[in-house]
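Please review this one.

:::
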Amino acid sequence: MSSGVEPAVQRIATRFETLRESDYALPDDFARRVLSPALVVHLDKVRDNLRRVIDYAGADADRWRPHVKTTKIPQVFAEMARMGVRNFKCSTTREAALLADALRQAGLEDGDSLLAYPLVGPALVRLGRIAEEHPETRLSVLCEEPARVTEIAPQLSVFVDINPGMNRTGIPMAETEEILAVARAAGERFRGVHFYDGHLWDVARADRGQAAFEGYDRLLELVSALESAGHSVPEIITSGTPTFLQALAFERFAELGETRHRVSPGTVVYHDLNSEQGNPDLVLTPAATVFTRVVSHPSAALVTCDAGVKSIAADSGDPCAFVIGRPQLVAQPPSEEHLPLHVTSGERPTRGTPLHLVPTHVCPTVNLAEQAVLMDAGVVQDVVRVSARAHELLLDE
């Protein structure tokens, strides 16, 4: 095929090329009613991913504190709880509230949730109220300044946030006295340390393990300093999706005595193209897709579908998605409502053809959707609100 100006083609071979379009298809009678684009969550594939991650953690669900900023849907929170997961991370007060609601509805009295974001002002007050409303779930918050501890509601526990070099939040690792001061100010509410080494995503995979282990050695020096100062450290939290396999392989984390080490990947529940390319040792299956349709044939080598940046995240660059079962369709830079696809071989799909997209970055993609179709083994179970998306706005008087 040829056209006046050929689009840039970024062809990336991954295990996704073996995915079958039929495994993600909506039933015909239901698809006829769906206005595209639409977020679709496949619960059977969610469960497969949950089982695999727990297996990676030595068949110990207690080793995992998944970050629910990815999943956003209470029905998926419930799936995690049914798998034995009791410890969670979240980023917003809305996530914290809906997660606590879901754990209560599941009948759990031993849930544990860390809001892993440096809350200030009314958001901190709101989290305290959520803790009051849900005494059966233990809620904690990050802190990186001793003076701030007095602003944290007494029903909230405290993790000290350590900056391992990502330079996003936390106390720099070298500032041992400041870290000790937060623990001292928190007193009996001190729960442990939070150490998110997401910057290692940019380290070559062959070198990532060594870089991670060096950071963990330094982290354990800090833990030793805390213990020497009289502060027990009940928990160490490390490692999102980029490095959780390395953290689970770090032998010293298995020799901590009464201190519990947990990893905190969240993307793994749904999986995405970023994770597939950056961590090919993970054997996971895409569980959240965007259903879209071809709407235009702008040139001989292009088709356009109706999933632009208002329905699929483009923050990770191009391509923003992978087309299941059609690797010859390569996503080009999207606009607000349009996603052009370069046809690298074969015939163009006709207008109206349904397609299924795996996002390159699934977390913000889920956040864009107001509703989601829940599928299970090819059967539509429900259409639900993505109720933990976005943010709460006002603190009630």
In short: The chain has a mean pLDDT of 95. The first strand starts at residue 38 and ends at 42. The chain has two domains: 15-42+282-385, 65-264. The domain at 65-264 is CATH 3.20.20.10 (TIM Barrel).
